C-alpha cells in the first residue's frame, strides 16, 4: 500500500500537475493540502475520473485539505481539530480509510514570528497533540500526514543558521513537534533515512529548486501499530521541476496493508 502527501498550492490551478502525478505514481491514499478552493469548487469529477474517491474540507482562497482513496472505502470522521470551536480555518480532516485512520493536516506557518501568527501555530500544535494522544489510546493503525510547516532537525533545512528565528524552525516549534513524537509517533521518512538531508519544499525565488536549497516540512507520523509494516518511502522531487507546479513535491511511503 502506498500513501502520499502533497501540498498542491492551489488544486484547480495545478490540476493538470496533480492528475499527471496521480497517473504516474498511482498512490493508494493521498492527503492534499492548500487546496485554495471553496467546498463547491473542489474538482471532484476530475478526481473521480482519475480513479479516486475523496472527502475534502475547502476554504475560499486559503488553506483546504482533502483525502483521496483509490480502492479502499473512505468515511469522514471529522473536519474540526478539537479545542477551538471558533477556528474557521480549513486545516484538518480525519477519515477512516479501509481499516486505518488518516488525519490530513495543514499546520499554520506562523510567520512573522514572534507575533499572533506564531501564537496561533503553537496553540494549533497543542490541539493536535491532544487529538493525537486520543487517537493513540484506541491502539489502531493511524497516520497523521501533511504539511506540518516544521523542520524538526538541522538535516531538514539547507541553511539552519538562516532559519533560527523562522516560525518553521524556532526552538519552541521544534520542541512541540518532538513532544508530539514523544507520545509514541514515528516520523516515517526520518526513520527510513536517519542521516540523509532530504527536502520536500523549494521556494519559487532565488532559484531554490535548481540549487536544492530546500526544506523538509511535509511529514508522516505513524502510530506504533503501523511502524512494523513500513517498507519504504521517498520524495518525488522531479515533480517540483514540472511546469506550473507547486513549490512542494509529493512525499510517499509504502507499507504492508494493516490487519483488521
From TrEMBL:
Residues in Endonuclease/exonuclease/phosphatase domain copies: 4-248
Taxonomy, superkingdom: Bacteria
EC category: hydrolase
rRNA-binding is among the record's keywords: no
Needed co-factor(s): Mg(2+); Mn(2+)
Alphabetical list of InterPro entries matching this protein: AP_endonuc_1 (IPR004808), AP_endonuclease_F1_BS (IPR020847), AP_endonuclease_F1_CS (IPR020848), Endo/exonu/phosph_ase_sf (IPR036691), Endo/exonuclease/phosphatase (IPR005135), ExoIII-like (IPR037493)
Gene3D superfamilies on file: Endonuclease/exonuclease/phosphatase (3.60.10.10)
Family as reported in the entry's similarity comment: Belongs to the DNA repair enzymes AP/ExoA family.
Protein name as catalogued: Exodeoxyribonuclease III
Species for this entry: Flavobacterium qiangtangense
